[in-house]
Amino acid sequence: MKKILVLGGSIFLGRAVATAALRRGHEVTTFNRGRSGSDVEGVEVTRGDRDNEGDLERLVAGRHWDAVIDTCGFVPRSVSAGARVLSSHADHYVFVSSVSAFQDWPARPIDEASPRWECPSDADESGGTYGPLKAGCERAVREHFDATVSIVSPGIIVGPGENVGRLPWWLRRIAAGGTLAPHPGDREIQLMDVRDLAEFILARVERPSECDLLVTAPAGRATFAEWLALCAKATGANPELVWMDEEFLLEQQVTPWSELPLWAPLRADWRHAWSVSSDAAVAMGLTCRPLADTVVDTWEWLRGTPGFQGKPKIGMDSEKERRLLAAWRGKGPGSEEAAR
Fold first, then answer.
1. Which residues contact 61 (CB under 8 A, 6 or more apart)?
2. What is the dihedral of CA 132, 133, 135, 137, to 10 degrees?
3. What is the predicted pLDDT for the residue at 235?
């Protein structure tokens, strides 16, 4: 049994980590503000803000953990403060970074040796966008935590509880009769179930070592078209998908990745969104459940969460989809065949 401190622990990955840790027999403490989600039953709950030094000092007073798992570090200055305080109160720090911390992604293929963004370890929110700030957080942990450090950089995470809303958006649109789809449908994608990521992180805690790993589903497991077919099957829908040429979508000012979630056109700046190496993680025991299970379980969760909307600016509104369908069909009877 390990004593584990989870920074976060109430939503999506943090919740999955806390749940899996309890199931594996560990003793779990969570540290969060209590604003984002409910606590996992069975954890020791500690309220506080990582930006408040007094809260951090109260957290660690008289305590020591085998490992800290940081699932919600986004600002280097905040991560630096926490790592300094926790350094003498834990033996291992697992920081969850992101594929976005690599400056070549998504334009070029990446592996663990690819360069990170330049971002200082004391940067605040104004120090850059999400990816550079994550790179700065990695530096913060390495500079200020004196024991074992593991950096885990996931690709795209989906599954029950997803708070971004990418897979939920597609499930709901297909269930509601949405038919627009971005060509080419045979492009391979790499989607990681949050529960598999949680299990992999806990395996690193149970066998601690210095490591720096990209963690995503291996290539060759599914294409975009196969994924949408799984969404249709899970929801019981039977849409006749209209596969639109990506040049047409770009001409119509459809925003890649967010307005059509996870659509990465085959242009230079997006060409290798799904060229993320998972070889090192697989060699260390990463396993991934079938994508069909992830889709079905997410739909079941979503049906029980009727108020869920995802983050702002995720997904296309239905009126724009109708306009695009009309414009595409107006190109002539051969338009749909040309994009297949």
1. none
2. 170
3. 97
Token duo for residue 176: 């509601």
pLDDT digits (tens, 9 = 90+) for 98-124: 999 999 999 999 999 999 999 999 999
Q: What share of the chain is helix, strand, coil (3-state, %, to 5)?
A: 35, 20, 45
Which one-letter amino acid corresponds to residue 224?
F
Spans of the chain, pLDDT less than 50: 333-340
| Angstrom distance (rounded) from CA 31 to CA 70 | 10
Q: CB burial class (10 A; 0-12, 13-18, 19+) of residue 153? A: buried
- Residues 114 and 175 sit within 8 Å (Cβ to Cβ): no
| Rounded distance between C-alpha atoms, residue 175 and residue 239, angstroms | 8
What pLDDT score does 313 carry?
75
Element (H, E) at 244: strand 242-244
Q: What value does the CA radius of gyration of the chain take, rounded to a whole number of Å?
A: 21
The helix or strand, by DSSP H or E, that contains position 29, with its residue range, turns out to be strand 27-32
Q: What is the pLDDT of residue 338?
A: 42
Element at 153 (helix H, strand E): strand 148-154
Peptide bond into 106 cis (omega under 30): yes
Name residue, tokens 């009769």: 177
Q: State the pTM of this model.
A: 0.94
Residue-wise DSSP of 43-89: SEEEE--TT-HHHHHHHHTT--BSEEEES----HHHHHHHHHHHTTT
Q: How many residues does the chain have?
A: 340
